[in-house]
Amino acid sequence: MSLPLSLNAICGLACEPTLLPRVRMAIAMVAQEVFAESPETPGYPARWNLSKTVLSPTEAQAAQMMVGIVASPPMVAAAAAAAAGGATTPAAMATAITDDEILGAIRMGWNAVAGVSPDAAQTAQVEQAET
């Protein structure tokens, strides 16, 4: 698989200090969404526990999650689009990435960070599609 950006570019974005506060807020927002889920949601105990842990994410917690968030397919695609649009620095890429793209990346990666098995996550997707 070929990456649309170099690992150096992705690393630069993951270390971009202007992106960190937005990621912290997005983590807190997704945590609130998870609290509102049904306890019947596959993987709910782990998802809820992660929410409880990161509801008020410290800078260190957000920085730890930042690497996984920035390396996720939605964020890599958003960063690649920003680069294609002329953003040449991590700060410029961070500015070009929308809040919705950040939230989407965090939602997509929540199960993995929470330790929910891929099987449980796949079951949840199938059940949501059927309703």
Characterization of the model:
It is a single chain. With 131 residues, the protein is mostly helical. It is 73% helix and 0% strand. It has helices spanning 7-14, 20-35, 44-54, 59-70, 73-84, 90-96, 99-114, 118-130. The protein is globular, with a radius of gyration of 15 Å. The N and C termini lie far apart (34 Å). The model has no long low-confidence stretch (mean pLDDT 87).
Can you lay out the helices and strands and say which pair or pack?
Elements: H1 7-14, H2 20-35, H3 44-54, H4 59-70, H5 73-84, H6 90-96, H7 99-114, H8 118-130
Helix pairs in contact: 1-4, 1-6, 2-3, 2-4, 2-7, 3-7, 4-7, 5-6, 5-7
Give the radius of gyration: 15 Å
- Main sheet: strands, sense, barrel: none
Our estimate of the beta-strand percent is under 5%
Determine the number of helices (DSSP H or I, runs of at least 4 residues): 8
Number of strands: 0
Mean pLDDT: 87
How far the N terminus sits from the C terminus, by CA atoms, comes to 34 Å
Shape: globular
Find the structural class using helix and strand composition. mainly alpha
Low-pLDDT segments = none
Strand-and-helix sequence, N→C? HHHHHHHH
How helical, in percent, are the residues?
Answer: over 70%
